[in-house]
């Protein structure tokens, strides 16, 4: 029947068509002509049950196809409208009530990994003020002066690298004006002083390619929409970055995320891109390119940058250190305050109002636990999501949803520290082995000596308390006293341990602090060196800093296995 209706449309309602159609079919059956053969005048006959592959396609006239397509669209539209019409006894779409969800569900949505990051009016993520200022200043100056350049962003996962760069670009486009270009990647950006620049923005995730040689092909297709010709080489892509009559863009901003995937396999493609974004190319043929590379690996700088610097290419370096406990606490608190209807007035720090749904002690515990283990903000979000979900499940057992919706969100029961402790114990305990496994022997030895030194001070303090001695013990271990203890113990193990110099010792202690295995802070403050060294320019030394372990002692002892040197340190006297 559908075939018959279609044919009726093609013939514009010709009443005599059905008779002609029947006679023609009968004639072809008598001649035993295959329906899909060349003599098929209609071209719309159904194929046999077991088709004989004499022809691979049926050619139809363009006018017939256009008519069929037009009428099919009209039919589909009519069916859609009919299906949306309310039937008798049924509500219309506008009358269907919206499904209710508890305030705890709204809070959980804030901590999904796919949720949008929260930034202030200046498009700065919480805890990334310094990095955002560097990025915004460098990009703005490059566009104003029309100077090509490159930015090399590095740091562990979950430290806000991609989020802050995307937010900075969003800030750049917040003043963009409409333009006549059909390319959605091109924007008319307005800078300070009403200076306009036509900017193309391309974002590319390097994890989507399996072969580094495909990088140019993918970028070329994103810009031009055409197939990349390998015969022309990289010059074909380089021409797209130049301002010509066909390409009137003042600058192209190319963001390469997950750049580790390419550096680990081949550096040639990246090297060419950084070369184009440098001052090494002649001015007449120079590409207008601002390259932003994002990498997770901490040692990527040592493996890739030396080659760039050897060729006089010096990208702007921006390092994102792991989040500190105070930064994680600030991010979580700020997100929770957005649940309030008057969230613009309820900004943390403006008054003594507590955040909704989660107790401040629970936020503090989650922040500290996340900071000392990984410093990954995403891990903290996972803990908050699971904690709220666990609490919501228990609350809904005693109260129904309507009761919760009648209570102001500020007065609802809060997630307590007990739920967060339960989730953290299940989430982080298994991570210690992953963090300790890649350490080298020198790093593990310093950790072992630190645990022994802490045991020694605890024993001496306990004995002094028993005898009511007057000897005063320091509340924290200074780097100087720990180095003296380390040097003394190395003399005992002189035949198996080589003592590190002071500079080497500081370097290893600093790396252990970055990975969250030890905590280093100034003697007169509790702030971590991750903030002090980055923001204040303080140099790490032996006199002004204290050190303490940040992981359970037993978790470290599990990783010793059959290492004779570490066993001797652990089981030796204080």
Automatic annotation (TrEMBL):
The UniProt record lists the keyword Transcription regulation: no
SUPFAM superfamilies, sorted: P-loop containing nucleoside triphosphate hydrolases
Keyword ATP-binding: no
UniProt-listed Pfam families: AAA_22, Cdc6-ORC-like_ATPase_lid
Keyword terms of this UniProt record: DNA replication
GO biological process: cell division; DNA replication initiation; mitotic DNA replication checkpoint signaling
Listed GO CC annotations: nucleus
GO molecular function: ATP hydrolysis activity; DNA replication origin binding
Record-linked InterPro entries: AAA+_ATPase, AAA_22, Cdc6/18, Cdc6_ORC1-like_ATPase_lid, ORC1/CDC6, P-loop_NTPase
AAA+ ATPase domain segment(s): 147-320
PANTHER family in UniProt: CELL DIVISION CONTROL PROTEIN 6 HOMOLOG, CELL DIVISION CONTROL PROTEIN 6-RELATED
Family the entry assigns: Belongs to the CDC6/cdc18 family.
Protein name: Cell division control protein
């Amino acid at each position: 029947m559908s075939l018959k209706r279609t044919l009726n449309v093609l013939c514009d309602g010709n009443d005599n068509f059905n008779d002609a159609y029947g006679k023609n079919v009968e004639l072809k059956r008598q001649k035993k002509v295959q329906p899909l053969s060349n003599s098929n005048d209609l071209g719309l006959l159904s194929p046999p049950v077991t088709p004989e592959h004499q022809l691979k396609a049926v050619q139809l006239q363009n006018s017939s196809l256009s008519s069929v397509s037009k009428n099919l669209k009209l039919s589909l539209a009519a069916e859609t409208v009919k299906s949306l019409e309310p039937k008798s006894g049924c509500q219309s779409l506008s009358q269907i009530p919206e499904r209710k969800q508890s305030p705890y569900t709204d809070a959980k949505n804030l901590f999904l990994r796919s949720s949008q990051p929260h930034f202030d009016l200046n498009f700065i993520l919480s805890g990334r003020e310094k990095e955002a200022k560097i990025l915004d200043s460098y990009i703005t100056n490059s566009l104003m002066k029309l100077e090509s350049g490159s930015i090399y962003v590095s740091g562990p996962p979950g430290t806000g690298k991609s989020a802050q760069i995307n937010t900075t670009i969003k800030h750049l486009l917040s003043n963009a004006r409409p333009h006549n270009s059909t390319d959605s990647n091109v924007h008319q950006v307005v800078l300070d002083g009403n200076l306009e620049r036509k900017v193309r923005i391309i974002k590319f995730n390097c994890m989507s390619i399996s072969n580094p040689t495909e990088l140019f092909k993918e970028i070329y297709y994103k810009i031009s929409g055409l197939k990349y010709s390998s015969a022309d080489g990289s010059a074909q892509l380089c021409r797209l970055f130049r301002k010509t009559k066909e390409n009137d863009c003042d600058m192209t901003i190319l963001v390469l995320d997950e750049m580790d995937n390419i550096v680990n396999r081949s550096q040639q493609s990246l090297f060419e891109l950084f070369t184009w974004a440098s001052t090494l190319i002649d001015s007449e043929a120079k590409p207008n390119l601002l390259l932003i590379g994002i990498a997770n690996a901490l040692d990527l700088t040592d493996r890739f940058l030396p080659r760039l610097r050897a060729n006089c290419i010096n990208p702007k370096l921006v390092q994102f250190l792991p989040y500190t406990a105070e930064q994680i606490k600030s991010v979580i608190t700020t997100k929770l305050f957005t649940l309030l209807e008057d969230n613009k007035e309820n900004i943390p720090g403006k008054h003594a109002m507590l955040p909704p749904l989660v107790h401040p002690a629970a936020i503090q515990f989650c922040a500290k636990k996340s900071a000392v283990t990984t410093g990954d903000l995403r891990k903290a979000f996972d803990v908050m999501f699971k904690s709220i979900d666990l609490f919501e499940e228990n609350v809904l057992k005693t109260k129904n949803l309507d009761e919760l919706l009648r209570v102001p969100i500020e007065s609802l029961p809060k997630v307590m520290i007990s739920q967060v402790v339960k989730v953290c114990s299940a989430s982080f305990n298994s991570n210690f082995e992953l963090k300790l496994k890649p350490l080298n022997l020198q790093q593990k030895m310093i950790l072992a000596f630190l645990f022994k030194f802490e045991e020694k001070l605890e024993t001496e303090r306990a004995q002094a308390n028993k005898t009511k001695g007057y000897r005063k013990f320091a509340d924290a271990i200074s780097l100087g006293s720990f180095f003296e203890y380390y040097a003394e113990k190395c003399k005992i193990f002189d035949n198996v341990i080589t003592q590190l110099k002071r500079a080497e010792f500081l370097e290893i202690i600093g790396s252990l602090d970055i990975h969250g295995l030890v905590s280093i802070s100034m003697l007169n403050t509790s702030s971590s060196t991750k903030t002090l060294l980055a923001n204040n320019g303080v140099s790490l030394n032996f006199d002004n800093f204290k050190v303490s372990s940040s992981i359970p002692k037993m978790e470290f002892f599990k990783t010793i296995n059959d290492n004779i040197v570490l066993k001797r340190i652990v089981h030796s006297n204080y």
